[in-house]
């Protein structure tokens, strides 16, 4: 007489092994996916910073090439230092020469503009300030932002 056959099933140990392996695989997949997202965000932010800096340099170049004496009779370049460059230029092509300043404050490259009054004065209270690039990394202030060469170069 044969004994009745029992239904085939997994033992508790086999189920625990499968659950453990599945948990390890899920944890590994989570780590891979989250690190991929972090890398993508970093690359995207880096590209945004590069594009912002590129646009800022293009704007600066265009405006500096339009240098001209101020409407008040001052010379075209007012101040040229390592982290500040102030000059006169007709940046909006309205026939009036604006006083423009580029300077580095912390990690931000600022553009400050003063439009002349009817009496050809440049009043500090009329200054508008905008940030061209917020991601300039020059923390040690070793490298100047603006460099000029004299005739002795």
Account of the protein in words:
By secondary structure, the protein is of the alpha+beta class. Helix content is 35%, strand content 20%. The protein has 1 helix and 5 strands. The protein has a 5-stranded antiparallel beta sheet with strand order 1-2-3-4-5. A hairpin with an 8-residue loop joins strand 2 and strand 3. The longest helix is centred in the first third of the chain and has 53 residues, at 12-64. It is rod-shaped, with a radius of gyration of 32 Å. It starts with 11 loop residues before the first helix and ends in a 20-residue tail after the last strand. The mean pLDDT is 88.
Any chance you could write out the topology, listing elements then pairs?
Elements: H1 12-64, E1 77-80, E2 84-89, E3 98-105, E4 108-114, E5 128-133
Antiparallel strand pairs: 1-2, 2-3, 3-4, 4-5
Q: How widely separated are the two ends?
A: 110 Å
Strand percent estimate: 15-25%
Listing every helix as H and every strand as E from the N terminus to the C terminus, the arrangement reads HEEEEE
> Helical element count?
1
* Mean pLDDT score: 88
Q: Which parts are unreliable, with pLDDT below 50 for 5 consecutive residues or more?
A: none
Largest beta sheet, briefly? Answer: 5 strands, antiparallel
User: Per the principal axes of the C-alpha atoms, what is the gross shape?
Assistant: rod-shaped
The helix/strand class is alpha+beta
Helix content: 25-40%
Read across the widest sheet, the strand sequence of neighbours is: 1-2-3-4-5
Q: Please state the CA-atom Rg, rounded to the nearest Å.
A: 32 Å
* Strand tally: 5
